[in-house]
Amino acid sequence: MTVRQRAKYCDVCVTFKEWLAKNGHRFNRKCKIRHYNKGTSIRIYFEDVAPELHCYIYEGNVGTSVHLKGRCWDLLEDFDYVMRRGRDRKYYCDLCRKPKYYDTPQELLIEHSFENFLEWVNENFTPFHALELTQCQGMTSARIIDTREPDVKHEAEREEFKDFLSGLKKISPGNPPVFENFDNMKIVFMPVIKEKDGCHGKL
Description:
Blueprint: H1 12-23, E1 31-36, E2 41-46, E3 53-58, E4 61-68, E5 71-78, E6 83-85, E7 91-93, H2 105-124, E8 129-136, E9 139-146, H3 151-171, E10 186-191
Antiparallel strand pairs: 1-2, 2-3, 3-4, 4-5, 6-7, 8-9, 8-10
């Protein structure tokens, strides 16, 4: 079987550092970066942001996940890409249903991923936002909520998550009923911007 490998048109880490040097001031919070995996990936650390939030960049991936208790709790947001080059020699993302074409691979990375990442960070890494961590036996999930919004909205979204777990039982009826008792569901809130008190609850 022939495996189709991704063509690497440019180095995403190098491109991000060049973009950050010119645009770092546009983030609402100061940030610094560190290289990992022999320079093939970057972690982005934002000032006063909860350390459980991991912002990362590596080939094909630009996003944010939540890590807690030594494991990945959930993926919050991603601006991933699969870069291709069309017959007209222009670059596009193969993940997009209606792809936009760019003259250079750097332009694709910047507009498709970096700029959207910047906008998402500025919208969600604020004192008004909290990290909601949910655990139901072996299943974990995370999301960022705006504490200024009415709680009734968040309650409706929590019920949707329960419906999702219930749906898993219908898909695989032969499996043990892992999510039969939602009384065991635990929800903890953590401020996105670090406070001295830390978590409001315990998982």
